[in-house]
Specification:
Number of domains: 2
Structural class: alpha/beta
Strand content: 15-25%
Helix content: 25-40%
CATH architecture of the largest domain: 3-Layer(aba) Sandwich
Length: about 450
């Protein structure tokens, strides 16, 4: 969403204030500010049945996949995810569609007096912009009368703004070393933060975690009496053969042993219209979490539930996740910015036919740059480096130097302006080439606009 309208300008000023030197370090990371704001807003979160999704990677995909299967079950769903790719409204979805600019602006106008009052009162905790957007999501979803709200954690879990609400079901997709300055420098420490979203007596669905992290999550679950559904034990995925394009669809079977609040065992055969074996795991986590929400299967028999899940997964859309935005050349946009997500993208690229591979990269400062380069650059014919976000992304020249230092034989072109960089890469690509934009959520948002600008309307 373009800045300029007063509520959005106000929200963006909150971000700018928090980015000022010294300000970020002084912000308190706790739940008191958002709880104070929710109190003034009338506690909309208490009227929602929430699926809460945390994880180092995959949490946004699981949230969108859960939205899809819940909607296919006949339910009205609100989904809050972050960050957005192109417009602020993408963060707030009702039944799969971003709310209108007017709806978001109206909600921000309702919240603004409460936010300003708390900011001006030295005795009160100061809400952050994420506290504001989280509260706005709860207000929008209550106003829309959703049956369920799927809420993605912003950072960590225990002290994230979204954790001011009590979830009916929690999901932890994955745990890896990330944001170590905020969450801790071991898998166990990060697992403790993510396990902070667990609720007493309520199910938690857990992905394939390293033993060090899994021990922490399961110990916390025992303390709370929260039943655990674990991928690889209670939940499994099997690939299925099928005449599908390796870049746009895959068939698979999900097996859920049941228990922990599920209506019974379940077997689902589905086709997912997105590439990457990791997305079938995310689909299984989404199905397992959605079917444990209270009331989900009340209107469905066992066979009806399986059909609803298959229908929902078949209709799922995952923007910026190995997304095909054009053909001739084949154009992929992916927001991979961690080693695990880069590894998943690299595994997809290995199986794609192409003449040449042109890679457009932007990476935020503080990321594991050498690991990302080691996974994404091999096999590239040319690399284009850019700076998708002026404050957070590395300068294109600095990133280009890192690429040249590790891959001396690969031509590298640096261009700070991401639109010009993407256009240059597209201009140098032939119809049988593969063009990939990756390394940053910011770049993914820009690439979706630039690389599909000459594609026909609808699915490429």
């Amino acid at each position: 969403m373009a800045a300029g309208r007063p509520p959005i300008r106000w929200l963006e000023r909150l971000i700018d204030l928090e980015r000022t030197p010294g300000r970020a370090a002084s912000l308190r990371v706790d739940l008191r500010p958002v709880r104070a704001l929710l109190d003034r807003a009338g506690h909309p979160e208490r009227d929602l049945r929430i699926l809460h999704v945390a994880g180092s990677k995959g949490k946004g995909s699981v949230a969108l996949l859960a939205e899809a299967v819940l909607r296919a079950g006949g339910h009205r769903v609100g989904t809050f995810t972050s960050p957005h790719l192109e417009r602020w409204t993408e963060r707030f979805r009702v039944d799969g569609t971003p709310v209108s600019e007017g709806e978001l602006e109206g909600t921000l106008e309702v919240l603004r007096p409460a936010v300003e009052a708390l900011r001006e009162d030295d005795r009160q905790p100061t809400p952050t912009w994420f506290d504001v957007t989280t509260t706005a999501a709860f207000l929008l979803f209550r106003g829309a009368g959703v049956d369920y709200a799927v809420i993605e954690v912003g950072l960590g879990g225990r002290l994230d703004s979204t954790n001011a609400a009590r979830a009916r079901v929690a999901c932890i997709t994955s745990i890896e070393l990330e944001h170590t300055d905020r969450l801790g420098d071991t898998l166990a420490a990060i697992a403790r933060e993510k396990a902070g979203i667990l609720e007493a007596g309520r199910p938690v669905v857990v992905g394939a975690l390293a033993a060090e992290a899994l021990d922490v999550v399961e110990a916390r679950a025992r303390e709370l009496g929260a039943p655990v559904v674990r991928f690889g034990r209670d939940l499994r995925v099997e690939p299925l053969p099928g005449p599908v394009h390796p870049c746009s669809a895959q068939r698979f079977r999900i097996r859920d042993a049941g228990g922990a609040g599920a209506p019974g065992p379940l077997e689902v055969e589905a086709e997912l219209p997105v590439a990457g074996a990791h997305q079938t795991v995310n689909a299984a986590l989404a199905v397992a979490a959605a079917r444990r929400l209270p009331g989900y299967a009340d209107r469905l028999g066992t066979d009806g539930e399986a059909l609803a899940h298959a229908r929902g997964l078949g209709r799922a859309v995952l923007p910026g996740r190995v997304e095909v935005v054009g053909r001739k050349p084949l154009r992929l946009v992916d927001s991979a910015h961690t080693p695990a997500s880069a590894r998943a993208l690299a595994s997809v690229l290995e199986g794609l036919p192409r003449k040449d591979l042109r890679l457009v990269l932007s990476v935020s400062a503080g990321k594991q740059i050498d690991a990302l380069l080691g996974l994404l650059v091999p096999g590239a014919t040319e690399v284009f480096t850019t700076r998708a976000e002026p404050l957070r992304s590395l300068p294109s020249g600095e990133l280009a130097a890192r690429v040249r230092g590790r891959f001396a034989g690969v031509p590298v072109i640096a261009e700070d302006d991401p639109r010009r960089c993407l256009a240059a890469a597209l201009g140098r690509s032939g119809p049988r080439d593969l063009l990939v934009a990756a390394g940053s959520v910011y770049l993914a948002g820009i690439a979706r606009r630039v690389l599909r600008a000459d594609a026909p309307a609808g699915r490429p």
